[in-house]
């Protein structure tokens, strides 16, 4: 029987206290067996009020600890609290039921054959099955080796639970029948599911979480280590899990990579009919690296047959709940580490400053202070939330908690639930460094106003560092270049006739990225009136050029376009030999020679250095499938 010192829950209570009140300095004292005190050294308010909150909101029932503001004279030892680097260590003090325990153990120790867990008479019995498998004339013995058992014992010890654990190895002549199994949506059975019932990509991402969570908090494992994340990608996130969104072609039109959360409880083939897209076409886009699937819910809610096809085709293009949790946890830890006020002395000063500024600005002190310390609180609270509920539970630690409701005057407070309902989407897109596209429900139902406010807040925290803060505060346009939501779909009109693969082929062939990013940034920095004028100018110049180009039966033939003609606009005319060379390089008989095509691209690049020239150049190339919409 494995007995622990039982201090884990006390350390977790202390962490939760410092999460709610980051300015507090605490010390844990062990007075005697199963009796602990948390001594608060620097609280200046009404301690009775603090104690009541501690007892009612923070300390779980039966946890043997009390809050005091006087240092005890007699004690056995001082217990070190959980630092911000140790929040995940051994899952210390986390209260877990049988279902959570067996899932945790099965995922963390995949080589061990867990098959049952029970808690009779106040003792947790963890059952491991050793058994024989017959294959033809051969018999194989399946067992847990001593090294795996040692790792299991070390983990249970690090959990520091007051409850004793038994590790029981049961011997069987054959594999035991598992008469019950877990339901990922909330079952309460005793026996673990067979491992092969979980999709391989789920097993992979569970290992990713359990193997790296400690390293994430220690900043030894970052987003750049994740198999699906590329900080250089120009990407967007679109959530189709619960509500409609825009046509898939818009995302392909504007972004290099589209992260997509597919609909729940719906066959992919049926969903795609609304976009005039086939399953095979979507799989082709995934194979090309243009689309990646982000699963924010349990796999049982999705079209599992399709998900398995994606995994076989391109394993890195499907990210399950645990993988998303890793991404989000990495992002929060990184943000907290870089945050300019992430020092104990500064946090304590922020409390005083908040009280002063609240009076001057006529703001709520608590709201102001919580906004200033949000990255610190999010780091301390997010681990349990992400472990249990995944990113869908982001509102429990998210920036929505520090936003006044409603964020704009034209939204009723009755719709403030959107903050919590869609908080995950803004946090997820921020973690991906991707643009978020708000959902588009019936009767104008959308989360865009909330997403914009949350996006701006997250951008502030990301850039509130020693090196970035001055630039961030000096230039409001910095926000537009971050991860707040954008609505370029208001500017783009998609031609309806190309198939989605034909559409994507044009975009890929014509080097869309980062041209689309530059176009959107150019327009987003203008006033509405300036934007209208700029769009009209771009369309006029593109039309002037394209009017001279022969058309095929259906679409414009981009293969014979002589793009140097665009440069002959009022913005400037290219000179002499370069002009003649451009004519030669784009001659119809030369277009099949790859060196000439590469040379022409170099010429185009050299001759299109102004932003407007580049944007017109880009728009002329994609005119086959899209154009700017004028008001």
From TrEMBL:
<protein>
    <submittedName>
        <fullName>Uncharacterized protein</fullName>
    </submittedName>
</protein>
């Amino acid at each position: 029987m494995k007995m622990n010192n039982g201090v884990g829950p006390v350390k977790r209570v202390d962490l939760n206290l410092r999460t709610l009140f980051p300015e507090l300095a605490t010390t844990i004292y062990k007075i005697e067996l199963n009796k602990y005190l948390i001594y608060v050294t620097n609280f200046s308010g009404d301690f009775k009020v603090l104690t009541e909150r501690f007892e009612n909101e923070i300390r779980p029932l039966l946890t043997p600890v009390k809050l005091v503001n006087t240092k005890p004279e007699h004690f056995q030892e001082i217990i070190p609290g959980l630092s911000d680097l140790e929040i995940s260590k051994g899952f210390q003090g986390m209260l877990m039921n049988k279902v959570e325990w067996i899932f945790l153990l099965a995922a963390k120790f995949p080589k061990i054959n867990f098959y049952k867990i029970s808690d009779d008479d106040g003792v947790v019995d963890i059952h491991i099955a050793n058994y024989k498998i017959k294959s033809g004339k051969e018999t194989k013995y399946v067992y847990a080796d001593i090294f795996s058992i040692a790792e299991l014992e070390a983990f249970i010890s690090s959990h520091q639970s007051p409850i004793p654990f038994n590790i029981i190895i049961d011997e069987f002549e054959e594999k035991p029948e598992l008469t019950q199994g877990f339901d990922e949506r909330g079952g309460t059975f005793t026996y673990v599911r067979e491992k092969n019932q979980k999709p391989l990509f789920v097993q992979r991402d569970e290992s990713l979480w359990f193997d790296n969570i400690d390293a994430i908090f220690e900043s030894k494992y970052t987003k750049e280590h994740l198999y699906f994340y590329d900080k250089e990608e120009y990407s967007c996130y679109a959530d189709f899990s619960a509500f409609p969104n825009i046509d898939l072609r818009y995302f392909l039109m504007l972004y290099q990579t589209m992260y997509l959360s597919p609909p729940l409880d719906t066959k992919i083939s049926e969903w795609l009919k609304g976009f005039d897209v086939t399953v095979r076409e979507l799989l082709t886009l995934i194979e090309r690296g243009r689309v990646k699937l982000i699963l924010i819910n349990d796999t049982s809610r999705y079209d599992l047959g399709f998900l398995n096809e994606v995994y076989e085709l391109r394993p890195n293009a499907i990210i399950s709940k645990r993988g998303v949790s890793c991404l989000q946890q990495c992002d929060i830890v990184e943000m907290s580490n870089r945050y300019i006020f992430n020092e104990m002395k500064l946090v304590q000063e922020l409390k005083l400053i908040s009280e002063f500024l609240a009076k001057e600005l006529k703001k709520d002190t608590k709201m102001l202070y919580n906004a200033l310390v949000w990255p610190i609180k999010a780091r301390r609270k997010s681990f349990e939330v992400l472990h249990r509920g995944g990113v869908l539970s982001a509102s429990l630690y998210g920036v929505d908690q520090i936003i006044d409701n409603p964020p704009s005057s034209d939204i009723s407070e009755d719709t403030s639930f959107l903050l919590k309902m869609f908080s995950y989407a803004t946090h997820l897109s921020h973690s991906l460094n991707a643009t978020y596209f708000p959902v588009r429900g019936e009767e104008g139902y959308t989360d865009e106003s909330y997403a914009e406010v949350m996006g701006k807040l997250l951008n502030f925290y990301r850039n509130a560092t020693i090196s970035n803060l001055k630039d961030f505060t000096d230039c409001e346009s910095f926000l537009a270049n971050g991860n707040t939501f954008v609505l370029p779909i208001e500017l783009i009109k998609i031609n309806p006739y190309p198939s989605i693969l034909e559409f994507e082929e044009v975009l890929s062939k014509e080097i869309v990225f980062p041209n689309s990013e530059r176009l959107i940034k150019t327009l987003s920095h203008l006033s509405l009136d300036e934007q209208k004028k700029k769009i009209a100018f771009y369309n006029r110049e593109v039309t002037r050029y394209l009017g001279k180009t022969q058309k095929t039966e259906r679409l414009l033939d981009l293969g014979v376009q002589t793009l140097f003609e665009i440069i002959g606009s009022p913005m400037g005319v290219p000179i002499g030999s370069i002009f003649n060379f451009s004519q030669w390089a784009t001659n119809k008989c030369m277009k099949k020679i790859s060196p000439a095509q590469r040379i022409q691209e170099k010429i185009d690049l050299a001759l299109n250095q102004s932003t407007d020239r580049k944007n017109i150049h880009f728009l002329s190339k994609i005119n086959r499938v899209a154009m700017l919409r004028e008001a």
